[in-house]
Amino acid sequence: MTIVFKNKDGQVRSFWKIGLAFILMSMLLGVFLFPLYAQMALKNTPMEELLNNPLNNLYGMFVQCLSVVITVLICLKLEKKSWESVGITHIKSQWKNLLMGLLLGAISILFITLILVVTNQITLTSVKITSNLLINTGIFLLGFIFVAINEELFFRGYVVSTLLQTRSFPIAYIVSSIFFGLMHTSNPNVHILGIINVMLIGFLFAYMFIQTKSLWMSMGYHLTWNFFQGNIIGYNVSGTTGSGFFRIKSEDNFWTGGSFGVEASVWTTVFIIVGFIVTKVYTNRSSQAKVQLNRINEQ
After folding, report:
1. 3-state SS assignment for residue 107
2. Would you kindly state where each structural domain of the chain is located, as residue ranges?
């Protein structure tokens, strides 16, 4: 069997580019995580326990982001492409998309919580607000900013834009979403509906990226979706233990998502679909407004 590295246009095939980028990113991450691995060896402490320390967790989130930024920078240099090609556009023209993403992510998780409380699937008990809780909340806000940049830049910015080299939107959507879902299968308390929802939300973020030609909307949604889950309300985030302003007593079923967190809830599936509808309406109106503005400027 012959291994074909290039397509008929003479370009390196998208799957090879993504595979090599992933290997480079993993190698960089391994180097940057050396301080945590050293702590594991010296203290004979599991990584999970080390990451219970908010500062260690923040460091892990930061170096993941750094690894992705360096990887994408190298790939762009080799391919002679600009940051705009992977959705890093000027905030002046994209602040409305960022704001829309921030609102959509926060409102979605808050509405899901309201439904679960009203239907008695969960009960919320407020915790005592201390200086440590507020400091940790600020640390995790910064950490989730790194996560939003890291995952959107790689999975949507680089992976989706590279898959579009195939000139097939279905391939770009489906392959990037499956890849995004598979990367979460090693998370704690993994749940099949949770992975399906992660794939669906990856599909939604790819749709936002392609529709707006930037990453700002998906970054905004990703940030508030994670932050409001884990550090405002206190759900587990993709199986990872959250710590918010409430203590949650939850039924373990497909309505709540159980130990994986609300991302494995059927209500999340519903609100991802709502996210597609809202994004379509919003981007259509934005496109119409731009057309009208161009006509006015031409007159």
Report:
1. helix
2. 90-293
